[in-house]
Amino acid sequence: MTTAAAAPRLGLAANAAQFTLLVVVNALVGGVLGSERTVLPLLADREFALAAYTAGLTYILAFGVSKAATNFFAGTLSDRCGRKPVLLAGWAAAIPIPAMLIWAPNWGWIVAANVLLGINQGLAWSTTVIMKIDLAGPHRRGLAMGLNEAAGYLAVAATAMATGVLAAAYGLRPAPFLLTAAYITLGLGLSAVFVRETRGHAHHEAATHTAGPHSGQLSTRQVFALVSWREPALSSASQAGMVNNLNDGLAWGLFPILFTTTGLSLTQIGALAALYPAVWGLGQLATGSASDRYGRKPFIVVGMIAQAVALALIALADGFAAWAGAAVLLGAGTAAVYPTLLASISDVAHPTWRARAVGVYRLWRDGGFAAGALLAGIVADLAGIRTAIWVVAALTAASGLLAWTRMYETHPRLGKDPSTTAVFRHAVQQRTLPSSRSSRPAADSLDGPPPTS
Fold first, then answer.
1. What is the b/e burial string over 78-117, where b = at least 16 CB atoms within 10 angstroms of the residue's CB?
2. What is the pLDDT of residue 56?
3. Whose CA is closest to 113, among 198, 180, 193, 188?
4. In this structure, are residues 22 and 134 in contact, taking their beta carbons and an 8 Å threshold?
């Protein structure tokens, strides 16, 4: 006689071991990214003698394009194939990266390595986000995303600092990228052996989810339209995420070069490169949880405005102490925004199409790296680095004001149910969403390919 398998349990306490393991895995994903933030801008300048800023930022452009595209497919693939296979594919894509960076004979190899880095980050980071959302359930998503993003960006910061120290002691290559190889080996091993599939948790939540106009299975085209422009909270999150990573691309590619203009040492540049993501990472431990209590919208709006002020201060400053203070403010603003945007996407999206909604959001968000590399590089070549920073500061402030005017509060306990808003009713009438009278059940299966439009 056989007994039915117990239904998956939702919540951080019920899934503490797997959730903690995924936090560790995401820290390793962040470490791979952090190994480039101090060293690659200096490689472009010192070893490959790329005089034009636009040319020097091509690796960020390649990273941003490949990561944005991969994010989109990560959500769809995780629904079709399961979360764990996508996570493993992300780690597999990273295997050649350290060797390519260490032995690159020309800048084209660096660009190619960053295409693989974008695929790695798009698959692995996106999947750890989706898996944590699966496990956490509806009530503590802000805390879950805060823990996830804190782990990733604290690892970015620690690795940026460590690679600066290694580069100062042993040179720009190969020592910093041996650390990258260690992260990849450990991350792949932990994911293959210990991480468990979480798609069943999403099935369980979908089966018990309250039906509404935005419930049921949507086509990928419908999800893309909702997240990109039709649904005010989802699209507001997408534009804010894109602008956030636009200014992060600027920070990654041009700040180390700006800092060298006053004769800062490699160790000091590494410290500044680490300070911003360190505050960003630590701050998310507080802001993600606080958004569960006070709502998502205030953190998103205030965070974007704080980033704009910080960028203006960096453009005005000239010296380690002033730049350090501005980097702290930039990190604090980003900490307010980053986990809260992901939580707001999860608040609105139904479990049957949530993974794809996260993928589309991350498509737009990480497209900001590419946009930032192009914009910052072109403006810096034409008018200088400080002018490029001013332009990005203005865009960041505009993004915060747009979120303030367009976005509603998404937290299910603090805001209005989005299914009752006029925008959702209009979307139903325009057949963007299945209506509440549809015969399709709210708990459509996540198995198999999504229906086509």
1. bbbebbbebbbbbbbbbeebbebbbebeebeebbbbbbbb
2. 79
3. 180
4. no
Give the C-alpha separation, 267 to 57, whole Å: 22
Q: What does the alpha-carbon distance between residue 30 and residue 23 come to, in Å, rounded to a whole number?
A: 10
Cis peptide before 449 (omega within 30 of 0): no
C-beta separation of 414 from 183 below 8 A: no
Structure tokens at 163: 């690679």
- Give Cα 392 to chain centroid, integer Å: 19
Measure the CA dihedral 170/173/177/181, to 10°. Answer: -100
| 86-118 pLDDT, tens digit each | 999 999 999 999 999 999 999 999 999 999 999
Q: What is the pLDDT of residues 223-261, one digit of tens each?
A: 999 999 999 999 999 999 999 999 999 998 899 989 988
Contact 272, 255 (CB under 8 A): yes
Other CB atoms within 10 A of residue 330 CB: 29
Contact 109, 100 (CB under 8 A): yes
Q: Determine the topology of domain 17-429 in CATH.
A: Growth Hormone; Chain: A; (1.20.1250)
User: For residue 450, is pLDDT > 80?
Assistant: no
Domain ranges of the chain: 17-429
Q: Can you tell me the distance from the alpha carbon of 347 to that of 66, in angstroms, rounded to the nearest whole number?
A: 27
**CA quadruple 424, 428, 433, 435: dihedral sign:** positive
Q: Is 432 helix (H, G, I), strand (E, B) or coil?
A: coil
**DSSP string for residues in 10-21:** PSTTTTHHHHHH
Assign 426 a pLDDT band (cuts: 50, 70, 90): very low
192-227 as b/e, with b when 16 or more CB fall inside 10 Å? eeebeebbbbbbbbbeebeebbbbbbbebebbbbbb
User: Whole-angstrom Cα distance, residue 55 to residue 66?
Assistant: 18
Q: What is the DSSP letter of 442?
A: T
What are the residues whose beta carbons fall under 8 Å from the beta carbon of 444, sequence distance 6 or more? 206, 216, 217, 352
User: Residue 443 in contact with residue 206, Cβ under 8 Å?
Assistant: yes
How many whole angstroms separate alpha carbon 156 and alpha carbon 256?
Answer: 15
- Residue 238 DSSP SS3: helix
Q: What is the mean pLDDT of the chain?
A: 87
Taking the alpha carbons of 76, 407, 432, 447 in that order, is the dihedral positive or negative?
A: positive
Q: Which residues contact 415 (CB under 8 A, 6 or more apart)?
A: 295, 296, 297, 347, 408, 409
The per-residue pLDDT for range 177-235, each reduced to its tens digit, is 999 999 999 999 999 999 999 998 888 877 775 544 455 568 889 999 999 999 999 99
**Residue 373 Ramachandran class (φ > 0 left, ψ -120 to 50 alpha, else beta):** alpha
Contact present, 310 and 329 (Cβ < 8 Å): yes
